[in-house]
């Protein structure tokens, strides 16, 4: 029998919109389990606006993949009928690796599906050549996984300061490390054999706050990171703004009125030069407070009652507060989260920062939700954000 062409409309090609819709639906279902679990499927349907049948289907697929499980204790409905079997995240099987490269050391960690740090270690830099730093990070991850039998890694998240291009998986430029055009995704993936996801640490921490921290219900969030590197990130309606080649959030060279610190760019008073932890430690050394380069030693001296250390931390927090005020005026976020060593450990520093912000908005500013694990969370959250945005595409079955 001769073959004839099938009618064009009998087998429609799946539309991009359909794929996007399925990805979004899967994401909101798993996010609902993360935020509300243990939670009944009927409650998920009510919270998300999806049909009960769709929720049941997604939950079945997540359970098959090992991402969720039924709660051991059923919940009775208010009416007559079978008890509900709530579902919850299964945080016993899978982890993600996290790598955060800072100026003095690399933090490697394992995080569970709730963003909690399961294990971590700091790997001090011998040299800062990218190949060596990334190889040692991979060795550190292997050691952590060897110490966590029964845990399966879904992937690795990498975060760093400077200019980090998420789409290409590249550290385009990190002046303090001397890195340029480093193909992190390719190199770290080659060492680990796992999918590697790459982003800047300020954007990574916005996602951590959005998923696991105090900004879950906020419609717009600004994050300011003030460490050795100073940068920012902004998220609105659950989307972090990256800009072309992920250059958004580069605020290191914003001018600070009255600034006196010389910057490597040749100017005076750039934001990073004024706020960097390097500047804090240099000032503390000059004042005889500490003799090293660890900002935690300044915090320790302040806790021991050293008035100069207290003054230095308060002055830095005030400068951070002025930067926050400027960014508030420009971006008008609902919530501001600041990662800065003073406000992470001292209430007087938080008060000093808020005093530099318009009185009606001071309460919207808060410290990071992860004061004891911020760098570990930054790395791991890059991978967890990918999982929660596309649970089926980033599923264990695919990996």
Automatic annotation (TrEMBL):
InterPro entries: ATPase_NBD, ROK, WH-like_DNA-bd_sf, WH_DNA-bd_sf. Residues 1-20 are annotated as: Disordered. Pfam families: ROK. It comes from the Bacteria. Gene3D superfamilies: 3.30.420.40, Winged helix-like DNA-binding domain superfamily/Winged helix DNA-binding domain (1.10.10.10). Transmembrane segments: none annotated. PANTHER family: BIFUNCTIONAL UDP-N-ACETYLGLUCOSAMINE 2-EPIMERASE_N-ACETYLMANNOSAMINE KINASE, ROK (REPRESSOR, ORF, KINASE) FAMILY. Belongs to the ROK (NagC/XylR) family. This is ROK family transcriptional regulator. It comes from Streptomyces venetus.
């Amino acid at each position: 029998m001769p073959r004839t062409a099938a009618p064009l409309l009998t087998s429609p090609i799946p539309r991009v919109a359909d794929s996007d819709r399925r990805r979004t639906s899967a994401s909101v279902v798993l996010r609902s389990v993360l935020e509300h679990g243990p939670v009944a499927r009927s409650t998920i349907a009510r919270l998300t606006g999806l049909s009960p049948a769709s929720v049941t289907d997604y939950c079945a697929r997540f359970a098959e993949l090992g991402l969720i499980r039924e709660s051991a204790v059923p919940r009775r409905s208010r009416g007559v009928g079978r008890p509900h079997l709530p579902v919850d995240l299964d945080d016993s099987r899978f982890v993600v690796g996290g790598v955060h490269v800072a100026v003095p050391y690399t933090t490697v960690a394992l995080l569970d599906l709730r963003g909690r740090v399961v294990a971590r270690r700091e790997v001090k830099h011998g040299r800062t050549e990218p190949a060596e730093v990334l190889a040692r990070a991979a060795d550190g991850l292997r050691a952590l996984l060897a110490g966590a039998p029964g845990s399966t890694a879904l992937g690795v998240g990498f975060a760093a300061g400077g200019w980090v291009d998420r789409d290409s998986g590249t550290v385009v430029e990190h002046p303090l490390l001397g890195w340029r055009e480093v193909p992190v995704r390719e190199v770290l993936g080659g060492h680990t054999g796992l999918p590697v996801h790459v982003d800047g640490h300020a954007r990574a921490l916005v996602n951590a706050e959005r998923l696991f921290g105090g900004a879950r219900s906020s419609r717009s969030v600004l994050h300011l990171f003030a460490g050795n590197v100073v940068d920012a990130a902004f998220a609105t309606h659950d989307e972090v703004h990256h800009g072309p080649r992920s250059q958004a959030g580069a605020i290191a060279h914003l001018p600070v009125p009255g600034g006196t610190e010389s910057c490597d760019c040749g100017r005076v008073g750039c934001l990073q030069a004024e706020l960097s932890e390097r500047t804090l430690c240099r000032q503390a050394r000059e004042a005889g407070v500490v003799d090293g380069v660890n900002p935690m030693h300044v915090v320790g001296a302040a806790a021991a009652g050293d008035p100069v250390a207290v003054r230095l931390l308060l002055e830095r927090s005030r400068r951070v507060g002025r930067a926050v005020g400027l960014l508030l005026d420009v971006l008008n976020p609902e919530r501001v989260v600041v990662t800065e060593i003073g406000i992470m450990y001292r209430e007087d520093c938080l008060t000093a920062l808020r005093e530099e912000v318009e009185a009606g908005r001071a309460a919207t500013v808060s410290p990071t939700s992860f004061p004891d694990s911020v760098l570990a969370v930054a790395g791991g959250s890059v991978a967890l954000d990918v999982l929660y945005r596309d649970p089926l595409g980033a599923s264990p079955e695919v990996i």
